[in-house]
Amino acid sequence: MSHDDVLNPKQMPHDPEKATLEGKNKFLGFWFFLGGETVLFASLFGTYLALNGSTQGENTPENLFGLELVFIMTMLLLTSSLTSVYAMYHMKNHDFGKMQLWLVITVALGLAFLGFEIYEFYHYIHEYDFTFRSSAFGSAFYTLVGFHGGHVLFGLCWITALIIRNQKRGLNLYNAPKYYTASLYWHFIDVVWVFIFTVVYLMGKVG
Amino acid sequence: MSTAVAQKRGLAATIWDYLTTVDHKKIALLYLYSGGFFFLIGGLEAMLIRIQLMKPDNNFISAGLYNEMITMHGTTMIFLAAMPLIFALMNAVVPLQIGARDVAFPFLNSLGFWLFFFGGILLNVSWFTGGAPDAGWTNYAPLSTTSPGHGVDYYVMGLQISGAGTLIAGINFLVTIINMRAPGMTYMRMPLFTWSTFVTSALILFAFPALTVGLFLMMFDRMFGSAFFDVALGGNVIIWEHLFWIFGHPEVYILILPLFGAFSDIFSTFSRKRLFGYSAMVFATVLIGFLGFMVWAHHMFTVGMGPIANSIFAVATMAIAVPTGIKIFNWLFTMWGGQIKMTSAMLWSVAFIPSFTIGGMTGVMLAAAAADFQYHDTYFVVGHFHYVIVGGVVFGIFAGLHYWWPKMFGKVLNEKLGKLAFWPFFIGFHLTFFIQHFLGLMGMPRRYWVFLEGQGLETGNLISTIGAFFMAIGTVIFLINIVYTAIKEPKVGGDPWDARTLEWSIPSPPPHYNFVQTPLVRGLDPLWVEKMDGKKGMTPAEPLGDIHMPNGSILPFMMSLGMFIAGFGFIYQVDNSSWLIAVFIGMGITLGSMLTRSLKDDLGHHIHKEELEADIKKGVGK
Amino acid sequence: MRGWMGKFRSLFLFSTLALILSGCGEENLSALKPKGYSAELLLDLMLISIAIMIFVFVIVMAIYVYVLVRYRKKKGQEDIIPKQTEGNKALEVIWTVIPIILLLVLAVPTVQATFDLADQSTQGDEGVLTVEVTGNQYWWHFNYRGEEIATSQELYIPTGERVYLDMKASDVLHSFWLPAIAGKMDTLPGENINTMYLEAYEEGVYWGHCTELCGPSHSLMDFRVIAVSPEKYDQWLEDMKNVDPEAQPETTTAQEGQELFNNNCMSCHAIGGASMGVGPNLTNFGNREKIAGILDPTKENLVDWIVHPDEIKPGNKMPANIVEPEEAEKIADYLLQLEHSSVGVDAPTQTEE
């Protein structure tokens, strides 16, 4: 396939993200990468579960967490996952404008999530004096949730960069796999959050 | 691009070429040179250890320095010598064995190498900045979290950076093997070296993140005051052991499996027989990989997990002996009825069988959880894992290098010198490590700076030290062989061994696009199949046409350099927060390079049909 | 389970193996010369596994040697192409099933021994001794539960009965290994207590090592276990309980030494008493087998140790030059005459070569 075919395809295939060998490689490689990420988060969850009783005082999961805020955050992130699905749907429809729009909405929701998370951390630190250094539970909590937050931040930067870079030239076979892997990444972040919500917050509050 | 051409372009151009290369064959050379360099450093450390233990109450090196020595010897040999040398072989061979023009992610391949390289350099810089890490290669908390100075910080940052490189390389080979195979190269026609690379890559993918997390926790504890391993704040030191061994045990198989693959190819080639029980061998490889994840806690029998956990992990560990046994017998029966040709590569492979069998046997003995109460952390364990890692991995690397040297450099390593290097190394290896099993049972614990007089350990330790010198002599002869071969030996053709697999169907060294036309694979041992049909080479699967190749890039180097700089920043910001500038600069370089990579299109280039035809006329591709 | 594993040993291969192996190592240190219940059990387990493994090795080597001799390429046969065999299902089954059976044979005694050694059923029973062991950089402390006494570096146990050890560490990981009597167990900082038991068959001074890397002086963190008959052990307990830390030494230098010791050393060390200090308890120091776990008990060595502990055990916490050398000599005089109990002095120690 010549460069021109890749950048200005005469006809967009149904799966533009997998139309080139590079795209196929990227698609498969990214799935493997997410497999590794799964082990990464599994290790963090394991560490958290081993240490969530080591609170060294009053700052226990039960006393700290408020489910209302976390519920809103969960809804925001779940919705952003859905909007990124819409974006990919429009990619397959070859409707570049709508795809970009849905991605902008995804980024906005992700930003809101991140804002709430920063607020949550700020709240714990200033209201409860509960920090990364106060107990093994504190270290494990901020590390697990913070790693997720870091992933959200990275995802936001990535998707934003893609939106801006390709705004003028539209979809082609070169950038379609990039969009697609970014959306996969975003789904993964969302799934991890569901586990954090369950293991850290629900089980901390109820269990 | 041949070396002769490169030389004409001058040294600076050659260096630039290697800094920016994304060609798997050149990256293989980079892995080979740096892995070889670290192997020599690790070997030197081993010699100093053995000199210190030559006699009782010795004072050759101080206690603190000794602990740095053993830590760096283990860490260097595992992460900076064995791993890259294996990656050198994988990069040099796997794309050729499956009939591909490059790996799936040439850019990431280069990034993986440079991350490994800068991580290794960072780790070794610690020697010159006030002390290397000294808590053992296993780096158990809380000795590691409370170790004074910055040694352990270097360990954490160095391994984190090089570990990221390894993870990238693992993903790369997985995708390469799944997506880039030539037409007709089904999974069950892949050479064993490719198969084992595939399984190893999967192990890397699922094992390394556990180490990543462990290193992050260690980093946070040492640099940012978290309390994961601080029992005063409710931390738990056993978490490190679990994370380390969840990574560490699969790591053992990451090291040995590719060489199982190499041995399979070598036995088959030099017996002129197809590999006996090919599908059983594939199955055993996959099974070893799978079981490798189930047994990590056998490193922790004495931690106090209780008899139930100990028994489960004991039995699971014993189970690994079964697929390993299958492999040993299938290798023996590959040679059975063959025409065995004792080349240097074959000599190392043949020597591997008894050595590794002994290592496997002591492995089963160690798996008996209760008996491990005697073996654990003694010289018995040291003897065991050196039998596996030297007798398996190092013998395998030597065998693989002898076997694939012509493919990498176009010349066969001198056979006489090859055998001359083998014998002292082989004898020295058994002298050094066999006696160590007994030393352990006689009461010598591992990681002992001195042993005392009058405990009956003198003779054994002296023998062991003498053996180490023999191994050093063997290594030096091998190095001489490399130089001698480069100067004196003649060039050889594409298939000097009368071999069986695809890499031997193209010139040595191959042109940078590997295959002028992608070959059509018609069975296991594709080249052998064609030769038996009376053909000279492979049947092409496509007409001669333009070839798409990736562009080189300096960005992988820059990204890794950024991490290297940031690594120093992280280490020293504990002392002085102005070092955070280094963190920002370093991460800025890395993230900036990543952004550049993301924003700037890189579509690669084409090699046109006319150039290929010209190459063919010159004799390339025959 | 002792019974049937013991009988195995009378088998020819076993007795030969045991004979060869027992040539290795020093009395009271080698795992190959067991002097206690656990060590004997473990040696039996090792012998079973070695026997199975040698069986496998012999088979592998027989095929190996045959193949290499028989199928080497010979002159004049360069062009022969061997038959390209794909494999053999029956053979594959054989070398899968036989190892499985062999491993099962090994797995049964392994699991039995693992549970046997983890048994704590009699701990806390009347008359069963439990010692609280603490590993420190680089010394061991032993607290005899229920008795108001403690020792450092040397653990006294009665022969012929189980003594439980409840073990932890005060700083970093250590591991308590007593090869001739039992195996080893790690000591961990924090809440985790690991328990193992010792049962010595004969009287003797047994050597132990730390087996978990714990810093520069890891290799110098030796300890002794002194096993004496139950009667002597009771005598020892009695002696230890009657230690008078204030007792006046006989010679004047020792008296001056006592004064110096009380002023300079007592903040970390203790004589008599049961609580663990920053440094080892020095009760009965005059009868110690070794100074600091490693040095011969001469006055010269002791003075060296008091003045320059860091040169002898790098990284240890005792400060150097806390007293002048002349003062150290007096302290040495004082310490070396602390002979609170003569029990165990005549216990058989390592044989000299």
UniProtKB/TrEMBL annotation, chain A:
Cellular compartments annotated: Cell membrane
UniProt domain Heme-copper oxidase subunit III family profile: residue ranges: 28-205
Superkingdom of this protein's organism: Bacteria
GO molecular function: cytochrome-c oxidase activity
Keywords: Cell membrane, Membrane, Transmembrane, Transmembrane helix
UniProt GO cellular component terms: plasma membrane
Name this polypeptide is given: Cytochrome (Ubi)quinol oxidase subunit III
Provenance organism: Halobacillus locisalis
UniProtKB/TrEMBL annotation, chain B:
Keyword Cell wall biogenesis/degradation annotated: no
InterPro entries per the UniProt record, alphabetical: Cyt_c_oxase-like_su1_dom (IPR023616), Cyt_c_oxase-like_su1_sf (IPR036927), Cyt_C_Oxase_1 (IPR000883), Cyt_c_Oxase_su1_BS (IPR023615), Cyt_c_oxidase_su1_bac (IPR014241)
Xref: SUPFAM superfamilies: Cytochrome c oxidase subunit I-like
Enzyme class: translocase
Residue spans crossing the bilayer: 28-49, 69-94, 106-128, 154-180, 192-220, 243-263, 275-296, 308-333, 345-370, 385-405, 417-442, 462-484, 554-572, 578-596
GO CC field: plasma membrane
Cytochrome oxidase subunit I profile domain sequence ranges: 10-522
Predominant subcellular localization, coarse grouping: membrane
Membrane topology: Multi-pass membrane protein
Keywords: Cell membrane, Copper, Electron transport, Heme, Iron, Membrane, Metal-binding, Respiratory chain, Translocase, Transmembrane, Transmembrane helix, Transport
Keyword Translocase: yes
Subcellular location: Cell membrane
Pathway(s) the chain acts in: Energy metabolism; oxidative phosphorylation
One of the record's GO molecular function terms: heme binding
EC identifiers of the protein: 7.1.1.9
Single Gene Ontology BP annotation: oxidative phosphorylation
Reaction(s) the record says it catalyses: 4 Fe(II)-[cytochrome c] + O2 + 8 H(+)(in) = 4 Fe(III)-[cytochrome c] + 2 H2O + 4 H(+)(out)
Similarity comment text for this entry: Belongs to the heme-copper respiratory oxidase family.
Chain's role: Cytochrome c oxidase is the component of the respiratory chain that catalyzes the reduction of oxygen to water. Subunits 1-3 form the functional core of the enzyme complex. CO I is the catalytic subunit of the enzyme. Electrons originating in cytochrome c are transferred via the copper A center of subunit 2 and heme A of subunit 1 to the bimetallic center formed by heme A3 and copper B.
Protein name: Cytochrome c oxidase subunit 1
Native source organism of the sequence: Halobacillus locisalis
Automatic annotation (TrEMBL), chain C:
Cytochrome oxidase subunit II transmembrane region profile domain sequence ranges: 23-121
Primary gene name: coxB
Role this protein plays: Subunits I and II form the functional core of the enzyme complex. Electrons originating in cytochrome c are transferred via heme a and Cu(A) to the binuclear center formed by heme a3 and Cu(B).
Family listed: Belongs to the cytochrome c oxidase subunit 2 family.
Cofactor(s) named in the record: Cu cation
Gene3D superfamilies: 1.10.287.90, Cupredoxins - blue copper proteins
Native species: Halobacillus locisalis
Protein name: Cytochrome c oxidase subunit 2
Catalytic reaction list: 4 Fe(II)-[cytochrome c] + O2 + 8 H(+)(in) = 4 Fe(III)-[cytochrome c] + 2 H2O + 4 H(+)(out)
GO MF terms held by the record: copper ion binding; cytochrome-c oxidase activity; heme binding; oxidoreductase activity
Residue ranges occupied by any Cytochrome c domain in the UniProt entry: 252-339
